[in-house]
Amino acid sequence: MRRSSALSLTAALAFGIIAPAQAATAASAHAGTATDLDRAALSKAISVGPADGAAGVVADVHANGQRWRGTSGDINTGKPIGPDAHFRIGSISKPMEAVILLQLSAEGRVDLDQSIQHYLPGLLPEDRFAEPVSVRQLLNHTSGLPQDFEGAPAISGDEMIERRLEYLSFDEVIEQTLRPVGRPAPGPHFRPGTRQEYNSFGYRVAGKLIEEITRHSYRYEVTARILKPLKMRETRAAVPGRSTPVPAPYLPGYMSRSTGEPVDVNVQGGLPASMTSTTGDLDRFISGLFDGRLLRPEQAAELFAVPKGTDGKPLPYADGSNCNTGPARGTACFSVGLMSVTLPDGSVLWGKTGSDPGYRSGVFASPDLNRRAVYAIGMSSSPGNGAEAVAQRLALAAFGR
Q1: Furthest CA-CA distance within the chain
Q2: Cα separation, 248 vs 188, whole angstroms
Q3: Core-most of 118, 126, 154, 341, by most CB within 10 Å?
Q4: DSSP assignment letter at 147
Protein backbone atom coordinates (compact mmCIF):
# COMPACT_ATOMS: atom_id res chain seq x y z
CA MET A 1 0.00 0.00 0.00
CA ARG A 2 1.47 3.33 -0.99
CA ARG A 3 1.81 5.82 1.80
CA SER A 4 2.73 9.50 1.84
CA SER A 5 5.13 10.04 4.73
CA ALA A 6 4.74 13.80 4.53
CA LEU A 7 0.96 13.49 4.66
CA SER A 8 1.03 11.04 7.54
CA LEU A 9 3.07 13.36 9.73
CA THR A 10 1.43 16.61 8.70
CA ALA A 11 -2.03 15.18 9.27
CA ALA A 12 -1.35 14.69 12.98
CA LEU A 13 1.38 17.23 13.65
CA ALA A 14 -1.11 19.72 15.00
CA PHE A 15 -0.55 18.30 18.49
CA GLY A 16 2.32 20.75 18.62
CA ILE A 17 0.77 23.66 16.72
CA ILE A 18 -0.43 26.10 19.35
CA ALA A 19 -0.92 29.66 18.23
CA PRO A 20 0.10 32.38 20.73
CA ALA A 21 -3.43 33.76 20.99
CA GLN A 22 -4.85 30.30 21.66
CA ALA A 23 -2.17 29.62 24.26
CA ALA A 24 -3.03 32.85 26.06
CA THR A 25 -6.72 31.97 26.04
CA ALA A 26 -6.03 28.50 27.41
CA ALA A 27 -3.73 29.87 30.10
CA SER A 28 -6.43 32.32 31.20
CA ALA A 29 -9.06 29.57 31.25
CA HIS A 30 -6.88 27.42 33.51
CA ALA A 31 -5.65 30.18 35.81
CA GLY A 32 -5.39 29.00 39.39
CA THR A 33 -5.65 25.29 38.51
CA ALA A 34 -2.16 24.62 37.16
CA THR A 35 -1.86 21.40 39.17
CA ASP A 36 -5.24 20.00 38.15
CA LEU A 37 -6.41 18.42 34.92
CA ASP A 38 -9.42 20.29 33.58
CA ARG A 39 -11.59 17.28 32.90
CA ALA A 40 -14.47 19.27 31.47
CA ALA A 41 -12.15 20.98 28.99
CA LEU A 42 -10.58 17.66 28.02
CA SER A 43 -13.96 16.06 27.42
CA LYS A 44 -15.05 19.03 25.34
CA ALA A 45 -11.81 18.90 23.32
CA ILE A 46 -12.50 15.38 22.04
CA SER A 47 -16.21 15.88 21.45
CA VAL A 48 -16.44 15.66 17.67
CA GLY A 49 -19.03 16.68 15.13
CA PRO A 50 -19.41 16.42 11.34
CA ALA A 51 -17.19 19.46 10.74
CA ASP A 52 -14.23 17.70 12.37
CA GLY A 53 -14.07 14.90 9.83
CA ALA A 54 -13.55 12.52 12.76
CA ALA A 55 -15.77 9.61 13.73
CA GLY A 56 -14.49 9.05 17.26
CA VAL A 57 -11.62 9.66 19.67
CA VAL A 58 -9.88 7.90 22.55
CA ALA A 59 -7.44 9.78 24.77
CA ASP A 60 -5.37 9.19 27.90
CA VAL A 61 -3.74 12.17 29.67
CA HIS A 62 -1.45 12.20 32.72
CA ALA A 63 -0.24 15.32 34.56
CA ASN A 64 1.04 15.95 38.07
CA GLY A 65 0.05 12.48 39.24
CA GLN A 66 -3.47 12.75 37.87
CA ARG A 67 -5.00 10.74 35.03
CA TRP A 68 -7.90 11.41 32.69
CA ARG A 69 -9.27 8.99 30.10
CA GLY A 70 -11.93 10.02 27.64
CA THR A 71 -13.74 8.85 24.52
CA SER A 72 -16.24 10.15 22.02
CA GLY A 73 -18.67 7.80 20.31
CA ASP A 74 -18.79 6.81 16.65
CA ILE A 75 -20.72 9.65 14.99
CA ASN A 76 -21.37 7.48 11.93
CA THR A 77 -23.21 4.73 13.82
CA GLY A 78 -23.97 6.31 17.18
CA LYS A 79 -22.28 3.42 19.00
CA PRO A 80 -20.19 4.17 22.09
CA ILE A 81 -16.41 3.68 22.09
CA GLY A 82 -14.69 2.36 25.21
CA PRO A 83 -11.40 3.72 26.64
CA ASP A 84 -9.66 0.42 25.88
CA ALA A 85 -10.49 0.51 22.17
CA HIS A 86 -7.76 -0.67 19.80
CA PHE A 87 -6.57 1.34 16.80
CA ARG A 88 -3.87 1.45 14.14
CA ILE A 89 -0.78 3.40 15.26
CA GLY A 90 0.94 4.19 11.94
CA SER A 91 4.36 5.78 12.40
CA ILE A 92 4.33 5.43 16.19
CA SER A 93 6.05 2.15 15.32
CA LYS A 94 9.12 4.15 14.20
CA PRO A 95 10.36 4.76 17.77
CA MET A 96 10.04 1.01 18.33
CA GLU A 97 12.24 0.33 15.31
CA ALA A 98 14.71 2.87 16.66
CA VAL A 99 14.71 1.19 20.08
CA ILE A 100 15.55 -2.17 18.54
CA LEU A 101 18.52 -0.72 16.68
CA LEU A 102 19.66 1.21 19.76
CA GLN A 103 19.54 -2.04 21.73
CA LEU A 104 21.52 -3.79 19.00
CA SER A 105 24.02 -0.93 19.22
CA ALA A 106 24.38 -1.46 22.98
CA GLU A 107 24.94 -5.17 22.27
CA GLY A 108 27.75 -4.34 19.85
CA ARG A 109 25.89 -5.77 16.87
CA VAL A 110 25.31 -2.44 15.10
CA ASP A 111 27.45 0.67 14.87
CA LEU A 112 25.18 3.69 14.42
CA ASP A 113 27.95 5.52 12.56
CA GLN A 114 28.59 2.67 10.14
CA SER A 115 27.01 2.90 6.70
CA ILE A 116 24.04 1.06 5.32
CA GLN A 117 26.21 0.29 2.31
CA HIS A 118 28.45 -1.68 4.70
CA TYR A 119 25.63 -3.65 6.35
CA LEU A 120 23.43 -4.07 3.27
CA PRO A 121 25.77 -3.98 0.25
CA GLY A 122 24.00 -3.38 -3.03
CA LEU A 123 20.78 -2.15 -1.47
CA LEU A 124 21.41 1.47 -2.48
CA PRO A 125 22.33 1.72 -6.19
CA GLU A 126 25.91 3.02 -6.31
CA ASP A 127 25.34 5.14 -9.40
CA ARG A 128 22.85 7.31 -7.46
CA PHE A 129 23.87 6.89 -3.84
CA ALA A 130 27.64 7.05 -3.79
CA GLU A 131 27.98 8.78 -0.42
CA PRO A 132 27.69 6.61 2.69
CA VAL A 133 24.43 6.79 4.65
CA SER A 134 24.85 5.90 8.32
CA VAL A 135 22.39 3.97 10.47
CA ARG A 136 21.98 7.03 12.68
CA GLN A 137 21.09 9.15 9.64
CA LEU A 138 18.30 6.71 8.78
CA LEU A 139 16.87 7.06 12.27
CA ASN A 140 17.15 10.86 12.65
CA HIS A 141 15.86 11.67 9.16
CA THR A 142 19.10 13.13 7.78
CA SER A 143 19.80 10.41 5.19
CA GLY A 144 18.64 12.42 2.16
CA LEU A 145 17.04 9.27 0.76
CA PRO A 146 13.89 9.53 -1.38
CA GLN A 147 10.42 9.00 0.04
CA ASP A 148 8.41 5.78 -0.24
CA PHE A 149 7.40 5.13 -3.89
CA GLU A 150 8.66 8.56 -4.92
CA GLY A 151 7.41 9.56 -8.36
CA ALA A 152 4.59 7.02 -8.44
CA PRO A 153 1.23 8.31 -9.74
CA ALA A 154 -1.21 9.39 -7.07
CA ILE A 155 -4.01 6.95 -6.38
CA SER A 156 -7.65 7.80 -5.81
CA GLY A 157 -9.55 7.28 -2.59
CA ASP A 158 -11.40 4.35 -4.16
CA GLU A 159 -8.10 2.72 -5.11
CA MET A 160 -6.72 3.26 -1.62
CA ILE A 161 -9.78 1.60 -0.10
CA GLU A 162 -9.37 -1.43 -2.36
CA ARG A 163 -5.60 -1.66 -1.91
CA ARG A 164 -5.62 -1.27 1.87
CA LEU A 165 -5.60 -5.08 2.16
CA GLU A 166 -2.22 -5.36 0.42
CA TYR A 167 0.80 -6.36 2.48
CA LEU A 168 4.29 -5.29 1.40
CA SER A 169 7.54 -6.51 2.92
CA PHE A 170 10.47 -4.17 3.60
CA ASP A 171 12.18 -5.65 0.52
CA GLU A 172 9.19 -4.91 -1.70
CA VAL A 173 8.95 -1.28 -0.57
CA ILE A 174 12.69 -0.81 -1.06
CA GLU A 175 12.71 -2.33 -4.53
CA GLN A 176 9.60 -0.50 -5.72
CA THR A 177 11.08 2.79 -4.47
CA LEU A 178 14.70 2.49 -5.62
CA ARG A 179 14.22 0.36 -8.75
CA PRO A 180 10.73 1.22 -9.99
CA VAL A 181 9.31 -0.16 -13.20
CA GLY A 182 7.91 2.28 -15.74
CA ARG A 183 9.12 5.53 -14.16
CA PRO A 184 12.45 7.23 -13.47
CA ALA A 185 14.35 5.99 -10.43
CA PRO A 186 14.75 8.63 -7.69
CA GLY A 187 18.02 9.97 -6.39
CA PRO A 188 19.03 11.57 -3.08
CA HIS A 189 17.36 14.77 -1.88
CA PHE A 190 20.56 16.13 -0.31
CA ARG A 191 23.95 15.00 0.94
CA PRO A 192 23.59 12.72 3.97
CA GLY A 193 23.95 14.55 7.26
CA THR A 194 23.51 18.08 5.89
CA ARG A 195 19.77 18.63 6.42
CA GLN A 196 16.77 17.00 8.05
CA GLU A 197 13.66 15.83 6.23
CA TYR A 198 11.07 13.47 7.68
CA ASN A 199 11.55 10.22 5.81
CA SER A 200 9.55 7.02 6.21
CA PHE A 201 11.62 5.24 3.58
CA GLY A 202 14.68 5.37 5.84
CA TYR A 203 12.72 3.32 8.35
CA ARG A 204 11.91 0.69 5.71
CA VAL A 205 15.67 0.32 5.26
CA ALA A 206 16.07 0.28 9.05
CA GLY A 207 13.48 -2.48 9.29
CA LYS A 208 15.35 -4.47 6.66
CA LEU A 209 18.55 -3.97 8.66
CA ILE A 210 16.89 -5.28 11.84
CA GLU A 211 15.75 -8.42 10.05
CA GLU A 212 19.13 -8.90 8.37
CA ILE A 213 21.17 -8.59 11.58
CA THR A 214 18.90 -10.58 13.89
CA ARG A 215 17.73 -13.13 11.31
CA HIS A 216 14.28 -12.68 12.81
CA SER A 217 11.17 -10.92 11.59
CA TYR A 218 10.37 -7.42 12.81
CA ARG A 219 7.29 -8.91 14.48
CA TYR A 220 9.46 -11.30 16.49
CA GLU A 221 11.98 -8.66 17.54
CA VAL A 222 9.48 -5.98 18.56
CA THR A 223 7.52 -8.55 20.56
CA ALA A 224 10.56 -9.97 22.35
CA ARG A 225 12.36 -6.68 22.98
CA ILE A 226 9.50 -4.24 23.69
CA LEU A 227 5.99 -5.67 23.92
CA LYS A 228 6.68 -8.53 26.33
CA PRO A 229 9.09 -6.68 28.67
CA LEU A 230 6.66 -3.77 29.02
CA LYS A 231 3.61 -6.05 29.25
CA MET A 232 2.02 -4.38 26.23
CA ARG A 233 -0.47 -7.22 25.88
CA GLU A 234 -2.89 -5.29 23.66
CA THR A 235 -0.30 -4.36 21.00
CA ARG A 236 0.31 -6.50 17.92
CA ALA A 237 2.54 -6.20 14.88
CA ALA A 238 1.27 -7.09 11.42
CA VAL A 239 1.21 -10.74 10.40
CA PRO A 240 3.55 -11.15 7.41
CA GLY A 241 1.69 -11.65 4.16
CA ARG A 242 -1.78 -11.14 5.60
CA SER A 243 -4.39 -8.46 6.12
CA THR A 244 -5.81 -8.38 9.65
CA PRO A 245 -8.56 -6.51 11.50
CA VAL A 246 -8.04 -4.19 14.44
CA PRO A 247 -8.82 -6.37 17.49
CA ALA A 248 -12.12 -5.81 19.26
CA PRO A 249 -13.11 -3.57 20.89
CA TYR A 250 -11.85 -1.13 18.31
CA LEU A 251 -11.99 2.52 17.32
CA PRO A 252 -13.66 2.65 13.88
CA GLY A 253 -11.83 4.47 11.12
CA TYR A 254 -13.58 5.31 7.85
CA MET A 255 -12.77 6.28 4.31
CA SER A 256 -15.33 7.42 1.78
CA ARG A 257 -15.84 6.02 -1.69
CA SER A 258 -16.42 8.46 -4.55
CA THR A 259 -20.12 7.57 -4.25
CA GLY A 260 -20.11 8.90 -0.69
CA GLU A 261 -20.42 5.44 0.84
CA PRO A 262 -18.47 5.19 4.12
CA VAL A 263 -16.15 2.18 4.47
CA ASP A 264 -14.88 0.97 7.83
CA VAL A 265 -11.20 0.32 7.01
CA ASN A 266 -10.17 -1.46 10.21
CA VAL A 267 -8.99 -4.49 8.17
CA GLN A 268 -5.65 -3.71 6.53
CA GLY A 269 -2.45 -5.34 5.34
CA GLY A 270 0.24 -2.67 5.50
CA LEU A 271 3.91 -3.25 6.26
CA PRO A 272 5.93 -5.39 8.69
CA ALA A 273 6.02 -2.45 11.13
CA SER A 274 2.26 -1.80 10.92
CA MET A 275 0.78 -2.24 14.39
CA THR A 276 -2.39 -1.95 16.45
CA SER A 277 -2.48 -0.84 20.08
CA THR A 278 -4.41 1.00 22.80
CA THR A 279 -3.82 4.27 24.64
CA GLY A 280 -2.90 2.33 27.77
CA ASP A 281 -0.27 0.27 25.97
CA LEU A 282 1.26 3.29 24.24
CA ASP A 283 1.50 5.01 27.61
CA ARG A 284 3.37 1.93 28.85
CA PHE A 285 5.69 2.20 25.86
CA ILE A 286 6.67 5.83 26.30
CA SER A 287 6.96 5.36 30.07
CA GLY A 288 9.27 2.40 29.62
CA LEU A 289 11.22 4.27 26.96
CA PHE A 290 11.90 7.26 29.20
CA ASP A 291 12.39 5.52 32.56
CA GLY A 292 15.30 3.34 31.47
CA ARG A 293 13.61 -0.05 31.12
CA LEU A 294 14.37 -0.30 27.40
CA LEU A 295 17.63 1.56 26.88
CA ARG A 296 20.92 2.20 28.62
CA PRO A 297 21.76 5.88 29.34
CA GLU A 298 24.11 6.22 26.38
CA GLN A 299 21.49 4.99 23.93
CA ALA A 300 18.62 6.82 25.67
CA ALA A 301 20.46 10.11 25.13
CA GLU A 302 19.89 9.68 21.39
CA LEU A 303 16.14 10.13 21.99
CA PHE A 304 16.56 13.74 23.08
CA ALA A 305 19.30 14.93 20.71
CA VAL A 306 18.47 16.61 17.41
CA PRO A 307 21.20 16.32 14.75
CA LYS A 308 23.71 19.17 14.55
CA GLY A 309 26.09 20.43 11.91
CA THR A 310 29.83 20.99 12.17
CA ASP A 311 29.07 24.42 13.63
CA GLY A 312 27.34 22.81 16.60
CA LYS A 313 23.93 24.20 15.64
CA PRO A 314 20.85 22.10 14.79
CA LEU A 315 20.69 21.20 11.11
CA PRO A 316 18.25 23.13 8.92
CA TYR A 317 14.96 21.44 8.16
CA ALA A 318 14.56 20.78 4.43
CA ASP A 319 11.21 22.55 3.92
CA GLY A 320 8.34 24.06 5.86
CA SER A 321 6.29 20.88 6.21
CA ASN A 322 7.50 20.09 9.74
CA CYS A 323 9.62 21.68 12.48
CA ASN A 324 7.85 24.96 11.74
CA THR A 325 6.71 26.00 15.21
CA GLY A 326 8.38 27.13 18.42
CA PRO A 327 11.57 29.12 18.98
CA ALA A 328 13.69 26.71 16.90
CA ARG A 329 11.39 26.73 13.88
CA GLY A 330 13.11 25.94 10.62
CA THR A 331 15.70 23.69 12.25
CA ALA A 332 15.73 19.98 13.09
CA CYS A 333 13.08 18.86 15.58
CA PHE A 334 13.42 15.08 15.14
CA SER A 335 15.86 12.94 17.11
CA VAL A 336 16.47 9.23 16.72
CA GLY A 337 12.89 7.95 16.58
CA LEU A 338 11.11 10.90 18.21
CA MET A 339 10.04 14.49 17.57
CA SER A 340 10.00 17.44 19.96
CA VAL A 341 7.09 19.78 20.66
CA THR A 342 7.50 23.04 22.60
CA LEU A 343 4.59 23.94 24.87
CA PRO A 344 3.37 27.48 25.62
CA ASP A 345 5.23 27.50 28.95
CA GLY A 346 8.51 26.70 27.16
CA SER A 347 8.72 23.07 28.30
CA VAL A 348 9.26 20.36 25.71
CA LEU A 349 7.44 17.10 25.07
CA TRP A 350 8.93 14.28 23.04
CA GLY A 351 6.95 11.67 21.15
CA LYS A 352 5.58 10.63 17.80
CA THR A 353 2.48 10.92 15.66
CA GLY A 354 1.12 8.20 13.41
CA SER A 355 -1.17 7.80 10.42
CA ASP A 356 -2.77 4.82 8.72
CA PRO A 357 -5.76 4.90 6.34
CA GLY A 358 -8.69 5.97 8.52
CA TYR A 359 -6.57 6.57 11.64
CA ARG A 360 -4.47 9.35 13.23
CA SER A 361 -2.72 9.00 16.57
CA GLY A 362 -0.02 10.41 18.80
CA VAL A 363 1.93 9.77 22.00
CA PHE A 364 3.94 12.48 23.80
CA ALA A 365 5.59 12.90 27.20
CA SER A 366 7.94 15.13 29.13
CA PRO A 367 11.32 13.47 29.81
CA ASP A 368 10.42 13.20 33.52
CA LEU A 369 7.10 11.56 32.55
CA ASN A 370 5.16 14.04 34.66
CA ARG A 371 3.13 15.03 31.59
CA ARG A 372 1.97 12.40 29.12
CA ALA A 373 -0.74 12.18 26.51
CA VAL A 374 -1.88 9.49 24.08
CA TYR A 375 -4.68 9.96 21.58
CA ALA A 376 -6.19 8.20 18.60
CA ILE A 377 -8.70 9.55 16.14
CA GLY A 378 -10.84 7.42 13.87
CA MET A 379 -11.55 9.45 10.76
CA SER A 380 -15.09 9.80 9.44
CA SER A 381 -16.22 9.63 5.85
CA SER A 382 -17.15 13.32 5.79
CA PRO A 383 -14.68 16.05 4.82
CA GLY A 384 -13.13 18.15 7.55
CA ASN A 385 -9.84 19.08 9.17
CA GLY A 386 -10.24 16.09 11.47
CA ALA A 387 -7.11 15.11 13.32
CA GLU A 388 -5.52 18.55 13.25
CA ALA A 389 -8.44 20.30 14.95
CA VAL A 390 -9.08 17.57 17.52
CA ALA A 391 -5.40 17.09 18.41
CA GLN A 392 -4.92 20.83 18.80
CA ARG A 393 -7.93 21.13 21.11
CA LEU A 394 -6.69 18.21 23.20
CA ALA A 395 -3.18 19.68 23.49
CA LEU A 396 -4.55 23.02 24.62
CA ALA A 397 -6.87 21.44 27.18
CA ALA A 398 -4.16 19.15 28.54
CA PHE A 399 -1.05 21.32 28.55
CA GLY A 400 -1.88 24.76 27.15
CA ARG A 401 -1.20 26.75 30.28
Answers
A1: 63
A2: 42
A3: 341
A4: P
